Amino acid sequence: MSAAFHMTVTKNRDLRAATRQLGRIATRRSHLHRYRIPNARRICDFDVHAVEVVEGVTVRPVSRERATMIIIGIILGFVGLGFLCWLLFALAVHALPTFVGLSAGFAAYSSGSGEIGAVLVGVIAASATFVAAHIAVAAFRSPLVRTAIVMLFAVPAAVAGYHAVLGLARFAVPAELWQQTFALIGALVVGGTAWMHLALSIRRGSGPPDGAG
């Protein structure tokens, strides 16, 4: 009696294990059909774990539209970075007119002119400073006066170029010596560019020598 009872319990246990195994297989097959895995026909079950052999799976390439958008984004990023570098260089070269324009704009805004009025006042002040410097360089014949006016523009430009390049170099160059080296090179380039701008005004404004018939 006990042997028959033991065999019945064993059969019931094996039946329950087989039922659970079939349930796991059915669940895996439903997952395969759900995610549409091609040619997933061979399923090898080993006790608890299951090994699923999938054949003919193809890797989908990135869509052409997405690749195009990525390339365009990279190109626009480089264009924007180049524009920002050019704008920083231009502001550094015209450091004195920029400083005068910003000072006039902030003063106008503090007096109640509003945002638009402050921008207009700043632009007018910077433009007036730039034009007045070129007129003064072209009008005065004394080399000492011309040199003083050119230095008045070149020195602030060199200082602005030094600090601008130093700020950028701290993000890309780890060594302090090379940071200072690049900053000095930037100061020379920006200051020299400001000097050359006014030197061209001197050449254009210089008339014929006195007494020329």
Word description of this protein:
With 213 residues, this protein is mainly α. The chain has 2 domains: 2-53; 83-205, no CATH class. It has 6 helices and 2 strands; from the N terminus they run αββααααα. It has helices at residues 2-34, 64-93, 95-110, 114-139, 143-172, 176-205, and strands at 42-46, 49-53. The chain has a two-stranded antiparallel ribbon with strand order 1-2. A hairpin with a 2-residue loop joins β1 (42-46) and β2. α3 (95-110) packs antiparallel against α4, α4 (114-139) packs across α5 and α4 crosses α6 (176-205). The radius of gyration is 39 Å and the shape is elongated.
Provide the descriptors you would attach to this structure in a database record:
elongated; 77% helix; 6 helices; disordered C terminus; 213 residues; two-stranded antiparallel sheet; 2 strands; mainly alpha
